[in-house]
Write a structure and sequence with these properties.
Radius of gyration: 18 Å
Largest sheet: 8 strands, mixed
Helix content: 25-40%
Length: 244
Amino acid sequence: MSDCTKGNSLNDYRVGGVSLFSTVDWPGHITATVFLKGCPWRCSYCHNKHLLSKSPSVDDLFWGQVIAELDKRRGFLDGIVFSGGEPLISAHLAELISEVKSRGFLVGLHTNGTKPSELKTLLAKKDTEGNPFVDWVGLDIKTSFSCYDELTCAKGSSDAVLESLASLQESAVEYELRTTLYPEAFDKDTLHALGEELLALGERNWILQKCREEGSNRESPLPFNLEAARQQLLQQGFETLLIR
């Protein structure tokens, strides 16, 4: 079912929201971030629960409104990041990216890896000038792969993430792996187990993101010393391990 509920135009496509200025959603770039609706997973700590459903809401924006605001920021913003929710479940994502690319913006993508086939297709796609259709991907790695199904409430979710990661490794598109350290999902052993899994997959760079309490910027305390754990992981073989 299409989300273009007012009519047949892409301008009538409903999005969950937009942040018109960000320096954190794509490190090293000034971006706007467009939040698409819908996600098949139900992680208990999700901070964007209002984006889980694709059902229409009075808070929705229409793509026509969003692209008009982005047009005003051409020459100022480096790129546009599509986030969610999970943007790869949108049947209109490629069309939205095409509109953004045609205006000279770079394109970043946030994904939890739930749609590996769709991701692989986008990674292989080129724009009209032969440049990558997607310029950068931030892949969320939520927990140790053996714990994925319990965390996401979705059977086989770890297989999808591993397939998505493999596609990124095979592509020429820049990407980063990042993990939000939700206290109820992470203890020191879980963090190190995930680190060992990523090293075994050939990854040497990893971003650890502190979890913040919903509705505030206050960090949620972890049941272990994060810096000590980081130093141990660096000794195990990571080249870059940043804490955000």
